[in-house]
């Protein structure tokens, strides 16, 4: 039975059976959905373009609870953006894989969220533009190669906005515990910032500079279309990395496996 068309991004692909692929899509209309692309692993298949990070229009039909664990089947699809660079560059692939896996782990099936869908597209586009130029939250500037620290800045913006869109916006105005200011620590389990006294009592609270608090507030207050006026420094990106990754993992309810890949690259290239 036809289920209609949806605009979506492929966030996960795995082999299924002898020649098929099982794909997870995050769509504008339906949220996260699963589908089987029949024969996608054959060289002349019409679904040969079914690959991670592809943005397109997908036509689905119901299999009646059959193959693929009750998933739908893919009947047609049209590529809107291939994001090919994200599959060809190891660093960008690691960043895009983290974005896709976080979306997969943190969202429920058939629960659409327009803001999350737009954030996913923004994040993949920002990562793609970072190839071959120095990139920060303001956009592309003249340069020779991608600055690995600024790739981290894209991921920090993704994490901050995703937490906001899913209802987990961190509290940044005053200490979560006692209400005092200024805040000098960030504590994921508390959902926000802590003062020096309260933060000092917790061994897992991360130190936070005033500049990092300010950039988080700026990101939270900005629409995606207006993020181009912001700038996140490499220091701020590095300082925010651990607490934001921990907060995202806590909301997801499990560690994000793609972080291990990012940590390997960090050791080689200084990814922040």
Describe the structure.
There is one protein chain. The protein has helices at 85-88, 90-106, 114-129, 148-165, 196-200, 210-221, 234-252, 258-269; strands spanning 2-16, 20-27, 31-37, 55-61, 72-81, 134-136, 139-141, 185-187, 192-194, 206-207. With 272 residues, the chain is an alpha+beta fold. It folds into two domains: 2-81, OB fold (Dihydrolipoamide Acetyltransferase, E2P); 91-269, de novo design (two linked rop proteins) (Up-down Bundle). It has a five-stranded mixed barrel with strand order 1-2-3-5-4. Strands 9-8-10 form a three-stranded antiparallel sheet. Strands 6-7 form a two-stranded antiparallel sheet. The chain is elongated and about 65 Å long.
Features:
3-stranded antiparallel sheet, de novo design (two linked rop proteins), OB fold (Dihydrolipoamide Acetyltransferase, E2P), 272 residues, elongated, alpha+beta
What's the total helix number? 8
Q: Could you name the CATH class of the largest domain?
A: Mainly Alpha
CATH architecture descriptor text of the largest domain:
Up-down Bundle
- Characterize the largest beta sheet: strand count, sense, and whether it forms a barrel: 5 strands, mixed, barrel
Q: And the CATH topology of the largest domain?
A: de novo design (two linked rop proteins)
What ranges have pLDDT less than 50 throughout 5 or more consecutive residues?
133-148
Question: Helix share of residues?
Answer: 25-40%
CATH homologous superfamily identity of the largest domain: Recombination protein O, C-terminal domain
Separation of the first and last Cα atoms: 47 Å
Our count of domains comes out at 2
Instruction: Write the H/E string, N to C.
Output: EEEEEHHHEEHEEHEHHH
Strand arrangement in the largest pleated sheet: 1-2-3-5-4
Computed over alpha carbons, the radius of gyration is 20 Å
Mean model confidence by pLDDT: 86
> How many beta-strand segments?
10
Q: What portion of the residues fall into strands of 2 or more residues?
A: 15-25%
| Structural class category | alpha+beta
């Amino acid at each position: 039975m036809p289920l209609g068309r949806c605009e979506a991004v492929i966030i996960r692909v795995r082999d299924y059976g002898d020649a098929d692929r099982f794909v997870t899509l995050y769509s504008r209309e339906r949220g996260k959905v699963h589908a089987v692309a029949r024969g996608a692993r054959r060289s002349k298949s019409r679904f040969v373009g079914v690959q991670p990070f592809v943005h397109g229009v997908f036509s689905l039909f119901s299999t009646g609870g059959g193959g693929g664990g009750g998933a739908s089947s893919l009947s047609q699809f049209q590529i809107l953006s291939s994001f090919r660079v994200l599959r060809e560059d190891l660093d960008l692939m690691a960043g895009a894989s983290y974005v896709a896996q976080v979306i997969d782990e943190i969202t429920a099936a058939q629960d659409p969220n327009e803001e999350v869908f737009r954030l996913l597209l923004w994040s993949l586009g920002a990562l793609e533009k970072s190839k071959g130029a120095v990139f920060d939250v303001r956009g592309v500037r003249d340069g020779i190669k991608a600055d690995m620290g600024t790739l981290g800045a894209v991921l920090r913006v993704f994490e901050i906005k995703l937490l906001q869109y899913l209802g987990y916006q961190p509290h940044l105005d005053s200490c979560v515990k006692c209400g005092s200011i200024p805040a000098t620590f960030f504590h994921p389990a508390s959902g926000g910032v802590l003062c020096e006294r309260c933060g000092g009592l917790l061994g897992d609270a991360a130190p936070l500079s005033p500049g990092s608090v300010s950039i988080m507030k700026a990101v939270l207050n900005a629409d995606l279309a207006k993020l181009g006026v912001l700038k996140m420094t490499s220091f701020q990106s590095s300082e925010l990395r651990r607490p934001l990754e921990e907060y995202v993992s806590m909301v997801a309810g499990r560690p994000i496996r793609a972080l291990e890949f990012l940590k390997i690259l960090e050791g080689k290239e200084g990814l922040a």
